[in-house]
Amino acid sequence: MNLSEIGDKQTRFVVGLMSGTSCDGVDAALVRLKGTGPEMHIKLMEFTSIPYPQPLRMRLLAPRMDATEVCALNFELGERMAQAALELIDPAKGNVEEVDFIA
């Protein structure tokens, strides 16, 4: 399904992921979007926050890091965000047709 087809759906399910500047963990929300524009209705379906282990948090907050460390952290954070999305989606399976996109 392409982006315009997702936009044309009456109901969409979306996972939002973030890790803030505090570097305490990944927050993940699964929301249902119905409609578009000013008439859009948004409902929070599931939410989870997965803390980072202290050694990872310290690496993220390091005052300086080289390119190798930046690249390694990029992959580690990607894996943690993917895990958060999966942990969020799994319990919602009975209430969600399919997740349309993850951002």
Explain what this protein looks like in three dimensions.
With 103 residues, the chain is an alpha+beta fold. Helix content is 38%, strand content 30%. A hairpin with a 6-residue loop joins strand 1 and strand 2 (25-34). The longest helix is centred in the C-terminal third of the chain and has 26 residues, at 67-92.
Biggest sheet architecture: 4 strands, mixed
- What is the residue-mean pLDDT, rounded to a whole number? 90
Q: What's the arrangement of strands in the largest beta sheet?
A: 3-2-1-4
CA-atom Rg in angstroms: 16 Å
Portion in strands? 25-35%
Helix count, DSSP H or I runs of 4 or more residues: 3
Distance from first to last alpha carbon: 16 Å
Order of helices and strands: HEEEHHE
Instruction: Return residue spans where pLDDT drops below 50 for at least 5 consecutive residues.
Output: none
* Class by SSE composition: alpha+beta
Helix content: 25-40%
